Amino acid sequence: MCCWLFSRGAVAPPADCSITAEQAIRCWAQHFTLHGISEPLLSSQYIISHVLGEKTLACVQRKRLRDTLNDRERERVWELCSKRLTRMPVQYVIEEWDFRDLTLKMRPPVFIPRPETEELVSLVLEDSRLIQGDSHRTDLRCLEVGCGSGAISLSLLHSIPQLRVFALDQSQTAVCLTMENANRLGLQDRLEVHLLDVIKDADVILSKCNPVDFLISNPPYLLSQDMKTLQTEILKFEDHSALDGGLDGLSVIRPILALSSKLLTPRGRIYLEVAPCHPPIIQQLIEEMMPGLLYLETRCDLTNRPRFCILQKKGEDG
Ligand SMILES: C[S@@+](CC[C@H](N)C(=O)[O-])C[C@H]1O[C@@H](n2cnc3c(N)ncnc32)[C@H](O)[C@@H]1O
């Protein structure tokens, strides 16, 4: 059946074809495999569940899977699966993705949030000083550098009612997508999003959001030499400036640290997602060059790789 379907070309579905959702999932998974598409079965399942109005296959009713796709559904499946054949990531194909408990709009080339960044957000939420606050604090202020789709900022706003966030990104598309996601989730009132570059616009950033209680960032941190090892999906569709951190992967991290020492309230914290090679380098940098900051700890991700750095601005008493 599948060979017959695709012998006439994948872009348009055969008009005379009657196919159930279940059969379409199998056929497209096989076709993806033949074309070397990564995660062929998952891709097919995500796309067809999406066309049927659900997020995952587990949410689609059994009976629905055995029903024949109507013309509109079949055309949509073919249209979206043909996009996936070009190696477009499934998150861009279905135009949305879940991050923690939020569903966010996705649009190329804005960086697709990764699962480990959910752990970065958890580190902040575990900090009882921030969540409970002291009894006099009615507001908390945070800066996110490199907001992308808004995943981190919006999750924090969603979980901490007294938080105000300043988010910035050097990409206009990212700034627009963060605003769009904030509006869709009703979180726009406590969020300011700015088109700013942390390397070039430090003075503007200081004037707009000084001071903040904490700074969070999942910056571009890959070493330039490792960019070529990335999957085709990433290289072809995601913004390279969201990933490439320069020769040592620290070209955006260094200005973030320099800015933090001026921007944070005493004992204010910095939460960074980094490459596994970075924590000792950042610790040395802080100890030798940035006397106003304290390196608190390195935390590992779920696969036990050292991926997160927590730092603190020294208090007035050192
Ligand atoms: C790895 S992505 C993270 C996006 C989002 N925070 C997330 O975790 O899904 C890094 C983001 O930093 C932005 N960025 C890169 N260089 C920057 C710079 N110099 N100043 C501000 N933002 C920058 C990129 O445009 C990109 O959106």
UniProtKB/TrEMBL annotation:
InterPro entries in UniProt: DNA_methylase_N6_adenine_CS (IPR002052), HemK-like (IPR004556), N5-glutamine_MTase (IPR050320), PrmC_N (IPR040758), SAM-dependent_MTases_sf (IPR029063), Small_mtfrase_dom (IPR007848)
Domain Methyltransferase small: 139-228
GO cellular component annotations of the record: mitochondrion
SUPFAM superfamilies associated with the record: S-adenosyl-L-methionine-dependent methyltransferases (SSF53335)
Enzyme Commission designation: 2.1.1.297
Gene Ontology biological process terms, A to Z: methylation
Reactions catalysed, as given in the entry: L-glutaminyl-[peptide chain release factor] + S-adenosyl-L-methionine = N(5)-methyl-L-glutaminyl-[peptide chain release factor] + S-adenosyl-L-homocysteine + H(+)
Residues annotated as signal peptide: none
Keyword annotations: Methyltransferase, S-adenosyl-L-methionine, Transferase
Domain annotation Release factor glutamine methyltransferase N-terminal: ranges: 23-94
GO-annotated molecular function: nucleic acid binding; peptide chain release factor N(5)-glutamine methyltransferase activity
The keyword Nucleotide-binding belongs to this UniProt entry's keyword annotation: no
Enzyme class: transferase
UniProt keyword Methyltransferase, yes or no: yes
NCBIfam families: hemK_fam
Name by which UniProt lists this protein: peptide chain release factor N(5)-glutamine methyltransferase
